[in-house]
Amino acid sequence: MTTSPSGLGEPRGPWFTSPDLADGGTAVRVPPEEAGPATGAADRRWPRLLLAGLALVAVSAGAGGTAGWFAAPDAPDAPAPAAAASPPPSGGAAPVPSDLVTAAARALPGVVSVQVRGGRGGSSGSGFVLDDRGHVVTNDHVVAGGGTVTVVGQDGRRLTARLVGRDPGSDIAVLRVDAGSGLPALPLAPSGQTRVGEPVLAVGSPLGLSGTVTAGIVSALDRPVRLGGGARQSAVQTDASINPGNSGGPLVNARGEVVGVNTAIATLEGGGNIGIGFAIPIERAARVATGLIGRG
Question: Does the annotation count 113 as an active-site position?
Answer without folding.
Answer: no
